[in-house]
Amino acid sequence: MNITSILSLLGFVGACFLAAATGALFPPGEWYEQLVKPSWRPPNWLFAPAWTVLYLTIAVSGWQVWREFGFAAAAALPFAIYLVQLILNAAWTPIFFGLHRPDLAFFEIVLLWISIVATIAFFYPLNAGAAWLLVPYLSWVTFAATLNFAIWRMNIESVSLR
After folding, report:
1. How far is the C-alpha of 36 from the C-alpha of 26, rounded, in Å?
2. H helices present in the chain, as ranges
3. Cα 92 to chain center, whole Å?
4. 69 neighbors 75 (Cβ within 8 angstroms)
5. Is 67:5 a contact under the CB 8 Å cutoff?
6. CA max distance for the chain
7. Residue 150: exposed, middle, or buried by beta-carbon count in 10 A (0-12, 13-18, 19+)?
8. Residues 8-45: tens digit of each pLDDT
């Protein structure tokens, strides 16, 4: 691996962890702890390590496509969609935890899910391995959307959502 490749990988990792930074700015806090949550919700400690691994795979996925195509025309649309999914990823936390709006966060996470599917579909012809690296991310966001929906529905009448 040459220095350009290493620097580009660090750039993708940095972009992904920039998206993750919203989690530090908008932690769950007391509001979240007071919500009714389904019994199948994972423990809070699991989210940080799971997301760390997922952000690394998201970064490596983008980097693999970049390594083969750079920002050539063939990769322009796939990278635009990749960027959209990163922005949507970053936006969910402030909506759910910052605004205390699981209802809006659910609709936002559906858009995130669609953007991940689109990223996988557009990456696959360019680099199948990069596309497959995003499947665990899609799986986790599917689970997160289900959890988001359950929390929204379980707390719909709650004073906490006003």
Report:
1. 19
2. 3-20, 22-25, 29-34, 44-69, 73-93, 102-123, 128-133, 135-154
3. 8
4. yes
5. yes
6. 57
7. middle
8. 999 999 999 999 999 999 999 999 999 999 999 999 99
Handedness of CA 136, 19, 93, 86 (dihedral sign): negative
Q: Using alpha carbons, select from 98, 100, 107, 103 the residue that is nearest to residue 24.
A: 98
72-110 pLDDT per residue, tens = 899 999 999 999 999 999 999 999 999 999 999 999 999
> Residue 55: pLDDT band by 50, 70, 90 thresholds?
very high
* Residue type (1 letter), 129: G
The tokens of 89 are what?
């990823």
